[in-house]
């Protein structure tokens, strides 16, 4: 997310709009910390069209919680639960505040890195969102850590990167089902075949 012209602070005020489900059109404000770049409305619309047969009652994992855009959108569309993982303390606090604002008790916020979470927790969620800050070399170690997990057959994994960032090698049983590009962003939906 770019800073407004004339803004010299590392933080700017951002607004997240939930685009579908029970909280459709709700707007949530957040301080946009460095590297925080919520998934655009257009991309979220496409992603949740892809996920529409699977999202209801699904358990979700948002590994780079950030603004909370992906996990909150999933919860708005009646996912059963979402675990948000976010390394930045202030950003974790903001996700918790969003959940309170929305009166949502179907989520947990884990203030730690994705790698630390994956090293200490067995992943049982059916839908996993991986949308790390761009160009910080976080995707390859995250995929490697997830590959060590015994993911269930049919687990769906969403991966978002900068368009000029190569996708790391995927485990043999991960298959790219959908792959699109919007501007400078590439995004894909991957299914696990156990």
From TrEMBL:
Family matches, as CDD domains: AdoMet_MTases
- Where does the source fall among the domains of life? Bacteria
Listed EC numbers: 2.1.1.171
Entry's Pfam families? Cons_hypoth95
Query: Which reaction(s) does the protein catalyse, per the Swiss-Prot or TrEMBL entry?
Result: guanosine(966) in 16S rRNA + S-adenosyl-L-methionine = N(2)-methylguanosine(966) in 16S rRNA + S-adenosyl-L-homocysteine + H(+)
UniProt keyword annotations, A-Z? Methyltransferase, rRNA processing, S-adenosyl-L-methionine, Transferase
InterPro entries listed in its UniProt record: RNA_MeTrfase_RsmD (IPR004398), SAM-dependent_MTases_sf (IPR029063)
Gene Ontology molecular function terms on file: 16S rRNA (guanine(966)-N(2))-methyltransferase activity
Q: What does this protein do?
A: Specifically methylates the guanine in position 966 of 16S rRNA in the assembled 30S particle.
Q: Which family does it belong to?
A: Belongs to the methyltransferase superfamily. RsmD family.
PANTHER family reported in the protein's UniProt record? METHYLTRANSFERASE
Give the protein name, as stated in the record. Answer: Ribosomal RNA small subunit methyltransferase D
Could you tell me which species this protein originates from?
Answer: Zhongshania arctica
């Amino acid at each position: 997310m770019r800073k407004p012209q004339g803004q010299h602070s590392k933080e700017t005020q951002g607004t997240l709009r939930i685009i579908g489900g029970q909280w459709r059109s709700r707007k949530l404000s957040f301080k946009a910390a460095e590297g925080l770049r919520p998934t655009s409305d257009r991309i979220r619309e496409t992603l949740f069209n892809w996920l529409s047969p699977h999202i209801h009652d699904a358990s979700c994992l948002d590994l780079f919680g950030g603004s909370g855009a992906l996990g909150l959108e999933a919860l708005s569309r009646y996912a059963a639960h979402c675990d948000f993982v976010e390394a930045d303390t202030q950003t974790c606090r903001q996700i918790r505040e969003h959940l309170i604002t929305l009166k949502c008790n179907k989520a947990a916020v884990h203030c730690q890195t994705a790698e630390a979470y994956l090293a200490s927790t067995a992943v049982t969620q059916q839908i996993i969102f991986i949308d790390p800050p761009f160009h910080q070399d976080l995707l390859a170690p995250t995929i490697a850590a997830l590959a060590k997990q015994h993911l269930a057959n049919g687990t769906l994994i969403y991966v978002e990167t900068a368009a000029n960032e190569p996708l790391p090698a995927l485990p043999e049983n991960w298959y790219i089902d959908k792959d699109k590009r919007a501007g400078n962003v590439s995004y894909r939906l991957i299914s696990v075949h156990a």
